[in-house]
Amino acid sequence: MKPWSKENRTYVASMTSGDFFGSEQSHIMENQGAVKIVLKKGSGGELVLKEEVKLEKGEVIDASCISRKKLCEFFEAEIKDSKDKNLMMSLHLKATMMKVSDPIIFGHCVKVYYKDVFSKHGALFSELGVNVNNGLGDIYDKIKGHAKQTEVEADIQAVYSARPGLAMVDSSKGITNLHVPSDVIIDASMPCVVRDGGAMWNKNDKLEEVKCIIPDRSYSTMYQACIEDCIANGQFDWKTMGHVSNIGLMAKKAEEYGSHDKTFEISADGVVEVVDATGRAIFKHSVEAGDIWRMCQTKNAPIKDWVGLAVSRARASGSKAIFWLDPARAHDRNIVDLATRYLLDHDTKGLDITFNTPVDAMKESCRRARAGQDTISVTGNVLRDYLTDLFRPVLSHGSTPRAPRHRWPGVGLRAAHADPASCCCCCVLTLRGRLDDPPRRQAQEAEPPD
Description:
Blueprint: E1 11-13, H1 20-23, E2 25-28, E3 33-41, E4 46-55, E5 60-66, H2 68-85, E6 88-91, H3 101-113, H4 115-128, H5 136-143, H6 149-162, E7 168-170, E8 175-176, H7 186-195, E9 200-201, E10 207-208, E11 210-213, H8 217-233, E12 244-249, E13 263-265, E14 270-276, E15 281-287, E16 292-298, H9 300-317, E17 320-324, H10 330-343, E18 353-356, H11 358-370, E19 375-380, H12 381-391, E20 413-414, E21 428-430
Parallel strand pairs: 1-11, 6-11, 12-19, 12-21, 17-18, 17-19
Antiparallel strand pairs: 2-5, 3-4, 3-14, 5-16, 7-8, 9-10, 13-16, 14-15, 20-21
Helix pairs in contact: 2-3, 3-4, 7-12, 8-11, 9-10
């Protein structure tokens, strides 16, 4: 656990418009039924993206898109800003779970960062079948043995003198953050930034301050709140801090983690519509070719169970429970309304249950943890994943002990306490049909190793 300096320059950068957060629309199904997803092309004609999505009564559905144009403009601006500030940059996504959208986003960042290389060798890369969504590593793999291998590799190296430094996955092998989309996974990499005192490893195998680029605002702001807390208050004391356990809404592929079969890279300018059986358009998004559009589902019964579990855990533990929901986001507004209604079905007398935005929830959870108080985070599916590993990061090292390559076991209930060198908290409870009482953290006497 490295110390934090009050002068630390590390921060999170996100888009201000054109992202999933800003474009999200949400709807609660009044009756059981089905919808169709279509692209009405601006040039004429209609393309069916998905013929049928069956839905239950009370199910929450959401649709959103991210603009390719605004994403690439964002990447270019942040890369230039990092260079101007002499600040290393890093990209944090979840390509292992967001397996359609995030590799595409990753590929755009690679193309923007190495734009001179793609400008010069684009035709060659097309000929070789380079898939930029697989990262810089795909170029190295496909160019191997080609007559222009030396030239291409030299041009790649030349980019580093004009662009900011990149966070490294393996400094000894020259593997950067942009080599492979699954090498830097946000729920593993961002806890390392916190643990390492607001830094990541550079090309010289040294810790360095870093700009953490998380394009979409849906969850990025809570990481910035955590960084700001550490800059103001220093590193967490793992021996005395309170738990931040989690109750996560993950049943039946809830929210973004179940969106793979309803995520599309748009092929033409037009309007994407989600249409019910009567022909009524529930959602409409104006899109351009290359935009990424997705639809998510959250069933009603798991939401009710999730709320009930939050109440039961708050009652059993005596801890404050916080629903991490942002009313500025369309999906969260609907979940707030439903959760508020379902809380009325339970005895909450004497319990401390609140609703906060992810930013305010992070601030309060950090404050309470530093005071030795336990807090229950009640979150959706993605935040369940992110917070579990932020407050209980179990490091599973990759190619080097310092590489931010982590693989997390896909389990339904995590209540394991990790190596004290790397953990801040204890458990996650998820709606997978089982509820066990989490073990209490045992205070350790020895200082944790670096």
